[in-house]
Amino acid sequence: MNRMIGLDYGSRTVGVAVSDPLGITAQPVETIWRKQENHLRKTLQRIEELVKEYGADTIVLGCPMNMNGTAGERVEKTQEFRDALMRRLPEINVMLRDERLTTSQAEKVLMEGGVRREDRKEHLDSMAAVLILQNYLDFLALNKE
User: Fold this and answer.
1) Where are any strands of DSSP class E within the chain?
2) Highest mean pLDDT, choosing among 62-71, 118-127, 131-140
3) Are the CB atoms for 18 and 49 separated by under 8 Å?
4) Residue environment code for 95-112, b if the CB has 16+ CB neighbours within 10 A, otherwise e
5) 15: how many CB neighbours lie within 10 A of its CB?
6) How confident is residue 126, by pLDDT bands cut at 50, 70 and 90?
7) CA 78 centroid distance within chain
8) What is the CATH number of the domain that holds 75?
9) Of 55, 10, 62, 65, which Cα lies nearest the Cα of 37?
10) How many domains does one find in the chain?
11) Which of 20, 92, 105, 115 is exposed most, by the fewest CB atoms within 10 A?
12) What is the C-alpha to C-alpha distance for residues 127 and 103, in angstroms, rounded to an integer?
């Protein structure tokens, strides 16, 4: 099994996580920052580098559905980002995964881990990416049996 990359796509950041080689756990990698929401060239380039570095064949992209299950503006922007990833990396499977509440869960994990408030933003997006990817890895494990 090849590794997978998890992404938490935001208006100014993309949190990145990667699975271990066995596809059991997800670990944080980094947060990619950009100055403007629509300036994606460097972001896409960095994701391409990470895909190659880790030998990933799948990207699990968090999709921020509304709590009532409807799709809002962020979902549209996430779908546009997915389409850009698919154009740039046609050999990679890019899938959307519901990510409701992952940012608040990530904040809770960081707080419980003793990360200081002023340091949390630096780690929040990559931790949200870990939760998105871990959720998918757990789903795969449950459905394998």
Assistant:
1) 3-9, 13-19, 26-33, 56-63, 93-98
2) 131-140
3) no
4) ebbebeebbebbbebbee
5) 29
6) confident
7) 11
8) 3.30.420.140
9) 10
10) 1
11) 20
12) 8
The residue type found at 99 is E
Q: Determine whether 62 is exposed, middle or buried from the number of CB atoms within 10 Å of its CB (0-12, 13-18, 19+).
A: buried
Supply 133's token pair.
Answer: 């990817």
Decide if 59 contacts 5 (C-beta within 8 A): yes
How many CA atoms does the CB half-sphere of 37 hold within 13 Å? 7
Is the overall model pTM greater than 0.85, yes or no? Answer: yes
Structural domain of 30 = 3-144
What 69-74 contacts at long range (C-beta under 8 Å, 24+ apart), as own/partner pairs, is none
